[in-house]
Design a protein that fits this description.
Blueprint: H1 13-31, H2 33-42, H3 49-57, H4 60-86, H5 90-115, H6 119-125, H7 133-145, H8 147-162, H9 166-190, H10 195-217, H11 235-270, H12 272-308, H13 312-339, H14 341-346, H15 352-365, H16 369-384, H17 388-414, H18 416-447
Helix pairs in contact: 1-9, 1-12, 2-9, 2-10, 3-7, 3-12, 4-5, 4-8, 4-11, 5-8, 6-7, 7-10, 8-9, 8-10, 9-10, 11-12, 11-17, 12-13, 12-15, 12-16, 13-16, 15-18, 16-17, 16-18, 17-18
Length: 456
Amino acid sequence: MTPVQNDFSQGSVARNILSIAVPMTVAQVVNILYSLVDRMYIGHVPGVGHTSLTGMGLTLPLISIVLAFANLGGMGGSPLCSIYRGKGEEGLASAVMGNTLSLLLFFGFAIPLVTIPFLDPILMAFGASDATLPYAKDYSFIYLLGTPFVTVGLGMNPFINSQGFGNKGMLTVMLGAVVNLVLDPILIYGLNLGVKGAAIATIIAQACSAVWVLSFLTGKKSLLPLHLCHLRPRWDHLRRIITLGLSGFFTSITNSLVQIVCNKVLHIYGGDLYVGVMTIINSLREVTFMLIQGFSSGVQPVLGYNYGAGEKRRVCACIRFAVGVTVGYAALIWLLNMTIPGLLIRIFNNNPDMLQAGVPALRVYFSMFVFMALMISSQSIFVGLGQAKKAIFFSILRKAVINAPLTVLLAFLWGVNGVFVAEAVSQFVCGFLCFFTMYRTVYRPLSHGHNFAGAI
């Protein structure tokens, strides 16, 4: 039987939001343990920790591209599947799920075929040097071989959540994270495989997640069992899946673009040392951003439900709570980065040169993090109320239009410092604009009892 939907128009707004946001936040945090734990172990390998960590950092844009295609399928197919299930069209829902799996398998096998033959020039374009290229190549080669596990595990897990099995979906992520956590020290240190061991551990973990997902979706507990006959591609389904998944796809692709530009510019003006610094900063950024994004994702169902029910005052209460929590959390993160940046960097590497270069860079990078939190919460509010185009616009504006060009310009003027200043400027400008737009076009009309422009 289909689970009964909670009535979010009743009870405490904060309690409704937290009931969803907490498990989603936990799942988001656990999800980033794959790469985070890898970098923590690799960064402390005696003698080569700094260089190998920098090499792993150069693979981040490539990993972001893989994740972009996984999100294209999962974030496009699962809501479409839910729509058909809501209409009682179980056959079409099953066909969408099967077509999504076919699409993810295609991406999983096509990406390594296209990228592996050109790994050297790709990684050199990302900012690799003669010293870091071997480490970057070792990690990315093994990771790319396991791309089918990544796309299937990550892309099909939303179909478990969409059937109401949130805990099962969270277990998918936790299973992979635990396997990765156990295997990392064994393969990296015990078998002395270094970066190769980190990549092997990640792929084995992703394979476990993929097997778990498929075993559940094809099992008796699934409300919508997956069968081989559903894998036959149908263009009308594929077109709608891709269209709905473009939001998450563009977010990951623009992330990759900024990472490539930053690594390349830092390599030119600061060498491998500053590419390593950016690797550490990106690792810390992933943790802090994922916490906000997990919470923001939990806000969206409550927002949408109350707006659909005509409870505009409760929608406004949701917005105030969401913004208040994210800004409060961002202020705490800002304080930690301003007061103990050295301690945060030592989690990944304790090289004196890394600390000397990383401490001021970290402070500049996170100097406008409160405005970044305003942007993330505002984007989440847009998506929750059916205004996804605005969220996509500000994401592209910040990363592709402002951040990437400004990184090149300011680096030319101020060297490596310009790279980190460019990030802070983009956070401030887009954070303010996105929040102001949300306030004027959504919150203010609702607070006066009106619908906002373009309301669904």
